[in-house]
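JOB MANIFEST
job_type = single_chain_structure
chain_count = 1
residues = 411
[input]
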Amino acid sequence: MSHLLRVAGFTATLLASSAVFGSVAFAEEKDAETWRLFVADHTLPVVRAIDLSTGKETGKFDLEGYAALSLSDSGRTVFAVQGDENIVHAISTGIVLSDHGEHRDIEINEPKLISTVIKGQKPGHVVSHGDQVAVFYDRETRFDLVSEEALAEGDAVLKPFDTIAAHHGVAVPVGKHFLVSVPNTEVAVKEGDLPPRLGLRVVDADGKQVGEVATCTGLHGEASSARLVAFGCEEGVLVARPGGIDGPKLEMLAYGKDLPKGKVSTLLGGKSMQFFLGNYGEDRIVLVDPDSAEEAYRLIELPTRRVDFALDPADPRSAYVLTEDGKLHLVDVVKGEIVKSETVTEPYSKDGHWRDPRPRLAVADGQIAVTDPRKSLVRVVDGDNLKEVRTIAVEGQPFAIVAAGGSGAVH
């Protein structure tokens, strides 16, 4: 009885407070889920935002040139990298997910073009870790560091870091340090060409190198999984592990004698499980387990050359590979094999120019969105049976694509 009286008394106090300070509104939680596709045209300077559930265009963003797309770790920002125009635009996805322990909140707004414009000679890789975003310029001796939060608020300040010499490289923020590719300045290159990469170095927050340069010949391809970062090299896959005050520790996973001649040059990182998926030539992919002493690499043969591949962030054991015969393959990364294949587009040959329009993949909510530039479509495919669910008509030649979204509580 006394407990009930205490509760009643507390309620009465709240009501009395309402009378003095105005009405009190108690927000009820309700679940919401939304997914948006961001699609860049192959030749037109435009990115379109499309609601996955309805197929309706919810935003159109005019740019300076053709754009490659990069999605931030948080999913709140899409970076439209226009290397030929020396500019990067940032697009707010309008979706903000925040963790609250036992549940997650979602805030949904309209997508919009962020006011801050990032400029530099031939921007290439844009890599985000946490709130930090590193923008690498191939034709300059610097990369820029910027806060994603500051970008969203419109008051971003870019901090430059030295890259020794202009080269096609990458910089990865890791805590208070950075992993930065190293150019080979000892070799002669033709006028207009860039020097090759010979390794990776750890740089602190002041831009000073920590330790020795780790060998990684022809470094290309970068991905993160759990707390690890991996890079493709001619010798193997170079893995950066968390370290102490001196920053990440670098370890080479050599390919070994059992693998055929080849190398990894594109990498994806598992989200719910710690592993990496990479290419190994054009008609093979490889699963990389950095903690396996016996089987660090598992090769998977493809029926034809790979056009694109993607991991399912919600289903840790599923990966999808599109090959040039138009077939989409479901790969079980635990079994290390293709478990299902279905035709989803007409054939797209890998012959011809490397930038010819070909399909690209994005995974969202158990579905795979496949751009089909010849047909001006995005094909939506069920992730389990690989059957086409529906198509979304997109003006022009839909090419690069990323998916942002999720579910959470709305207050």
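[summary]
The two ends are 33 Å apart (CA to CA).
The mean pLDDT is 91.
exit_status = 0
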